[in-house]
Amino acid sequence: MSKTQKAPGGVRSKGLTDYLNDENVRAVIYQIVAIALVILAGWYLVSNTLANLERQNISTGYGFLNLEASFGISESMIDYTPQSNYATALMVGFLNTVKVAFLGIILCTIIGTIFGVARLSSNWIVRKLATVYVETFRNIPVLLQLFFWYAIIPNAFPAARNAFQPLPDVLLTNRGMYIPVPVADNAYDFMGIAAIIAFIVIYFINKWATKRLDATGQPFPIVWASLGIFFGLVLIAYLIGGAPTAMDIPALKGFNIQGGYNISPEFMSVLIGLTIYTSTYVAEVVRSGIQAVPTGQWEAAESLGLKRSIALRKIILPQSMRVAIPPLTNQYLNLTKNSSLAVAVGYPDLVSVSNTTMNQTGQAIEAISIYMAVYLGLSLTTSLFMNWFNKKMALVER
Amino acid sequence: MKMKTILAAGAMSVAAIAANNAHAGAALDGIKAKGFVQCGVNTGLPGFSAANAEGKWEGLDVDVCRAVAAALLGDAEKVQYTPMTAAQRFTALQSGEIDILSRNTTWTLTRDAKLGLTFGGVNYYDGQGFLVPKALGVSHATELDGATVCVEPGTTTELNLADYFRAKGMSFEPVVIENINETTAAFFAGRCDVYTTDASGLASVRQTMAPNPDDYVILPEIISKEPLGPAVAQGDDQWADLVRWSLMAMVEAEELGVNSGNVDDMKKSENPAIQRLLGVSPGMGEALGVDEEWAYRIIKQVGNYGESYKSNVTAKLGLERGLNALWTDGGLQYAIPVR
Ligand SMILES: N[C@@H](CCC(=O)N[C@@H](CS)C(=O)NCC(=O)O)C(=O)O
């Protein structure tokens, strides 16, 4: 698309002004200037920062990661004591972030889909209730919602001494929920391996079944077969492992409930807050996705004699997915990023641990650089996964 | 492409703002030029720094900032306050968001040497303690094995806590929340068995935030040394000196019996130490780079250390002088000679 102007008459040789008036040349010049400015600005900021740190005698570098952290962290998925180093502390924070984001994404998808469908229900009450839910929780800032849940949970439940038992051996207290868990045993490792094997077997059977369906039109009861394989294999592993039955049952000991698995009020507040807030956006995405499917599809399904619920599950939802996935990805990213608000209610996520670390070591820039990189990594992973999923769901022309 | 250019230009101007001049005395000159001291204080710890009913900041820590403003700018009211949590404070100081941090901050080696701070002395000698509900039935810290403890992040408190339990071979479960209101609310709701911080902070929390102060006790054990004092960023020694000597002047005034009521009369005193302090015999102000009335204004407008302590710490929290009595009365407050 070259638009180089010919000099009138084509005789005059090109002068400097001709070059400067040439759009292509100008474009190149602009780009160079822009890049130069960006580099200059970056260099200016970096050198200034270094000069300031130097002047104030603030040490730099990542060496602090090996020093003993010396502070306690309330919950951790890996072994951590105050004697562990800062790198381990940050790892604890990272895993806590992943835990709450992962569970939050799954739960908000389920809840959001239910409310999104409910908003289109033909039942007036259901429709209105869903609308109230969405409009309320969507319009209150998520930080306030976290504070709200964190104010409710420790106040709503009894002290450890008079714990409330909704189910046998499940204790609800103002220190969180305690549930019994099996005592660690080799059998559970076997079961994990069996589960992985089951998934692989199921994957291949699924492939084979689809092929057969395409080729011969014969359906295969894939759901039942999969469930059978999964539970069968896991059960066999359990029996081979000696069928252990010992349970770690929570009970009051000293000041606190000891034993079992504790779901802390901080974790609950963050999970509930993020899930509910994000589920309202998911609901809207699902609703608009469904509405984007032409009504002709409903009518066609109806004329085939399909029930409304089957039509929704088999015809409408799969098509609306295609519209919904990109905005859904955005919501997942938002949830992950919003999880950094956990610091406000004392859940030890990555930001919380990083804040403490930078405060104890003074390495603010290093600590921030670590968590920025991690959030970027998490977001990119989520995006990549969702892009892959999107491609898979996209309309395949046959 | 145009966008990029604009962005780049934007980044440049941000950089220009972010830039700090690096000549000596820059902080001091900057404060003089803007006409007020930007002072980082606690978000609300009555007795040390808290806004009163009229929104005016008051407390022992606040008085340090007021003293510095009186010395440098001639008016103790020329201070602007930035309330900050423990976790925010050092970054704020390092980045120049505040000129001075006067917020129950413990002087430690790491903070002094590694965080690029300079401490200007100790305006309150403290130690860490434990606050528990009476109903817990605990009378000593050694009975706290297995307890859940509420604590704030980025403090010496959380480090001492871990050290103490480790040394005693006991276990604990921390609940770490950044904001004092959230932390104390969690404690009073029963989320934790114990709330721990500096003993002065415990007294303040118990007196001013507990639903019923009598339901809570402070355990007798003090598990650490917490010398609290004002801090500034390294890089301008002249500014650091002014902060240090403003605090010293308050203590020296108490030692010499000079207070806000008698300071005008004291100008006629024959005592050479008083004459030097009040600028009657000149030299001290010049050495600090301010005028000779610097200490006179501190005492006149803010009061001496004892007055500040009495009207803030004793009046609000009922705490006696204890470690913070003058050395002549068996305490640790000891002014370095003003000469
Ligand atoms: N002196 C200790 C602790 C100071 C501290 O931050 N204490 C808490 C508990 S009293 C506080 O003042 N919090 C008030 C806030 O976060 O606004 C230190 O310097 O690390």
UniProtKB/TrEMBL annotation, chain A:
Keyword Manganese: no
Keywords tagged on the record: Amino-acid transport, Cell membrane, Membrane, Transmembrane, Transmembrane helix, Transport
A GO molecular-function descriptor: transmembrane transporter activity
Record-level GO BP terms: amino acid transport
Compartments where found: Cell inner membrane; Cell membrane
Transmembrane spans: 27-46, 100-120, 190-209, 221-240, 368-389
CDD domains: TM_PBP2 (cd06261)
Superkingdom classification of source: Bacteria
Keyword Glycoprotein in record: no
GO cellular component: ATP-binding cassette (ABC) transporter complex
InterPro entries: AA_ABC_transptr_permease_3TM (IPR010065), ArtM/GltK/GlnP/TcyL/YhdX-like (IPR043429), MetI-like (IPR000515), MetI-like_sf (IPR035906)
Membrane topology reported for the UniProt record: Multi-pass membrane protein
Domain ABC transmembrane type-1: 94-386
Similarity field: Belongs to the binding-protein-dependent transport system permease family. HisMQ subfamily.
Name the UniProt record assigns to this protein: Amino acid ABC transporter permease
The species this protein was found in: Thalassospira mesophila
